[in-house]
Amino acid sequence: MNATGARPATAPPHACHAGVRILGPIEAAGLDGPAVLSGARQRALLAVLAVHAGTVVHQSRLIDALWGWDPPRTAVKTLHSHIARVRQALDACGLPAALHTRHAGYLLDIPALEVDAHLFESKVASARRHLGDSVPEAAARELREGLALWRGDALADGEPTGWAAAEAARLNEVRLCAEEDLWEAELRLGRHRTAVGELERLLVGHPHRERLVGLSMLALYRCGRPAEALDAYRRLRAHLADELGTDPGPDLQRLHTAILREDPALHPATPAVADPPATSELAGHTPASALVGQAAPNAEPVPAELPAPAGHFIGRDEELSALDRLLAQDGPQPRIGFVAGPGGMGKTALAVRWAHTVVPRFPDGQLYVDLGGHDPATALPPTQALAQVLASLGVPAGRIPAELPARAALYRTLLSERRMLVVLDNAAGPDQVLPLVPPTAASLLLVTSRSRPTALAVHHAVHAVALDALDRHAAVALLAQVLGRARVDREPAAAVELAGLCGGMPLALRIAAAKLAARPGRTLAELTAELVDDDRLDELSVPGDSRSVRTVFGSAYRALPAPAARLFRLLGLHPGATFTGHLAAAAADLTLPAARRVLAELVSAHLVGEVAPDRYRCHDLLRLYARECAAADETAAARDETLARIVDWHLAVADAANRLVDPGRDRVRAAPAHPPAQLPFADDPVAALAFLDGERAGMLAVVRHAAEHGHHTAAWQLTYLLTGFFDSRGHWADRVELCRLGVAAAARCGDPGAEGLMRSGLGVALIMTRRFDEALDVLQHALALTRRCGDTRGEGHVHNNIAVANAGLRRHDEAVEAYQQALALHTSIGSALGVALGLNNIGDAYVRMGRAELSLEYLARALPAARELGNARLEAAALSGLGQAHAALGDLDAALDHLRQALAVRRHRGDRRHEADTRNTIGTVHLRGGDHRAALDEFGQALELSREIADRHLEATALANLGRTHLERDDPVAAAGYLRLAQALRSRAPDHFEAACIARDLGELARRGGDPAEARTQWQLAVDLFRKANAPAEAEALADTFA
């Protein structure tokens, strides 16, 4: 028996075995088993993040949750430590990359339904809708499945702070309410004999809970035990009188009276058709007295105009719950719900489904009017809408006033003494809605519209619910609902891709599923292949059904004013998924204020969404439709001009950002034909990088489009101008793709100098992804091209990159030789930047070769040269090199001084990749000096940064460093966890030398743990890897230790 007194049920089919469980002891489990969480605060931390799964939780909120109102001075640092350990535990159990750092907070990136509490509350919400729909069997099933998720008291072993206590109390209350809902459903099904015993057990712990007492009284009466039912009432009434001086509530009093009268309606011959409304229902509960069927004395027919609910409906629990809150609204003002969203998102389905669940609360009827506002040609004038509802309210046609004000006044008069639900579907704007607003809070108005409720909110308080695309899980679930779970499970990857191609739009998903359902032999993959093409909208229609995706979009497009319609179709030509007001202004040749005004109209019409301040997104299917409109309504010359403006805008922005981020990268200076009047960021490298973070995917899309559609010069120039950004952020996979596009575009231009420049950049990208041999092949080709063009500066840069590739292969002599050649070439042409770069690189190479004294000579010349040039990037590199050289010579104080200066410069520039690299180096110096705590702090921050920028190489290095530090601290459990994570990551981001060091440390860990066989296995692996990494000295030294 569980804590609330109910018998445990078998585990439900959707129990979240993988994920986080807080309905009992706090646990997490992944593909590899349960997570190991040491300490109550780590468990509590995981619980807070799980409660807010999918949402960023601010650092201050986590500190409040873990320590309450009096956190220790070290709370921030301790929180970082707990975060690192929880992340390690999640990675180790098979939930990799689940915990992310986001700005000043943290995000547990798992589906909400993989947290047992969310799954439980989802099932409870679903059950209550089933109860409202008078489907108690389904409600009972959902509730039993939800209650079976409980394993004890909520958050049983978390830190007992105010947050944990409050959240546990909330969850336990939801649990008890769910128990009550379950036994209400069972009583509706006539299972009173089973209910009696279970309700008595619940009452042992909660003897004065009125709803439980009422349910128990009804069950006892139905079992032929009326005396016991009346005795239960007397006990509760005596307690309330003694303790509070009050009587039981009116619902329980009515039930008591019905039992005394032996009311036949108390017997469960047939389930109640409609439950009469009651105050307690506002909290989602139905009182026991409401189970008594009562015949309505009103002889006149009550309007019941709601359409039938949609046959297939999934998800939307949050939106349904938001509408539920309308029912609890206080005050005399009208209650107005407003569901807004793009066409095809299921606004009507949501509104009608919710409306059916609340029918019992509006006994005087439900009115439904389709205002037709999705298309100007079908929009219903308010006078006609009022005529329709007045007729529904029983007003003869001859007595309906002619004028709008008189009709509205009569409507308000008729509703003033009634409790009615009014649903206005497809409203175009406030003029259609305002005359139909009920006069009091007794009735409720629910509106659906493709427009935002801004104008209506000027006149009335509006409870707005925004409807957007279904997430991936809900979209696939909708497909399964139509096609059957077995068919979707046979092709899970195709189902996910199909959901993505439909953009999560319910209408598109239902059309696609209907087409598949009509042809059982057709696979999901076959339909998916057809939807990949640009004629996707043709596929998303059903013969004989006028409501295709294109039709829905077309009605919204035709309703737009001419300037908004033009901007919408021109934005369809933009290759990227998101855009800013600046880009919109450039595409349409508008001023920025004018573009923002027109964008506001598109946002209001839900044809464009504003996903962040001045950043907009157009749904994938809407973008296809906008492109169709551009093809139909714009000339070929106008479309070409728009594309040229879009490409020119990206060139100008990339050039301006490049000048700020990497001023030494000056081989290309853009001169677009249509320069923007205003840049979208301040004259600051950090601001430029932050803007490019949002434009990254869009920039890549523009380069692809330019390369594929004849804008070859722009494609390779954009590639060059963006490489500084991609370098600083560590987006190496994107940079490889970008550079390959640039190489192809430059080759098509027939410009060997440009091709040499692009191949040199591709070589760098391949080096950073550890493909050193491929990089050398590409760079040799680049070297030949620069020599053919007489490009001495370019030749010097290629030699420099060849040196970096050789250093990666640990061919240090060849690296120094190539660096010297680069230095000589730059010296010969008087390139101050090339000379400074050469000095720095040679110094760095000598550090790696163990010749620190010689390294200092070069770096001491490189640093002032970089400062004289004002090149902060090169200055930081020289400072970092000096720090490493001093560390190699044993001067740890000087090393830390230089490294901290380098860190400050890189942080100021917003260079997160090099910041992470520098923190790893600083941590290594602390470790060498025996300061383990400082080392762990630096490595921990390096790990968080590397994960933020998704740099696996830096992440593996940070993990290995953390493991090495714990090994030195003689903490074998933590050391093993970090080192094994590092080893696993190195298998996907190979670096033979680093992998060898990790295996060597794991071997030492096994030796200390008394496992010589494992030690030998790891050491032999390390020897083999050292040899592959061209590190024979390290290989032989290690081999000698276990020979």
Describe the secondary-structure layout.
Blueprint: E1 19-21, E2 27-30, E3 33-34, H1 40-51, E4 56-58, H2 59-67, H3 75-92, E5 99-102, E6 105-108, H4 116-132, H5 136-147, H6 162-188, H7 192-205, H8 210-222, H9 226-243, H10 250-260, H11 317-324, E7 335-340, H12 347-357, E8 366-370, H13 382-392, H14 404-415, E9 421-427, H15 430-433, E10 444-449, H16 454-457, E11 463-466, H17 472-483, H18 485-490, H19 492-501, H20 506-518, H21 524-531, H22 536-539, H23 549-558, H24 562-571, E12 578-580, H25 581-588, H26 592-604, E13 609-612, E14 615-617, H27 620-633, H28 636-661, H29 685-708, H30 712-729, H31 732-749, H32 752-768, H33 772-789, H34 792-808, H35 812-828, H36 832-848, H37 852-869, H38 872-888, H39 892-909, H40 912-928, H41 932-948, H42 952-968, H43 972-988, H44 992-1008, H45 1012-1028, H46 1032-1041
Parallel strand pairs: 7-10, 7-11, 8-9, 9-10
Antiparallel strand pairs: 1-2, 2-3, 4-6, 5-6, 12-14, 13-14
Helix pairs in contact: 1-3, 3-41, 3-43, 4-5, 4-6, 5-6, 6-8, 7-8, 8-9, 8-10, 9-10, 13-14, 17-19, 17-20, 19-21, 24-26, 24-27, 25-26, 25-28, 28-29, 28-30, 29-30, 29-31, 30-31, 30-32, 31-32, 32-33, 32-34, 33-34, 34-35, 34-36, 35-36, 36-37, 36-38, 37-38, 38-39, 39-40, 40-41, 40-42, 41-42, ...
What about the largest sheet?
Answer: 5 strands, parallel
Q: What is the CA–CA distance across the termini? A: 61 Å
CATH homologous superfamily of the domain at 317-466 - what is it? P-loop containing nucleotide triphosphate hydrolases
CATH T-level fold name of the domain at 317-466:
Rossmann fold
Rough shape? globular
The number of distinct helices, counting runs of at least 4 residues, comes to 46
Strand content: 5-15%
Name the strands of the widest sheet in spatial order. Answer: 8-9-10-7-11
CATH class of the domain at 317-466: Alpha Beta
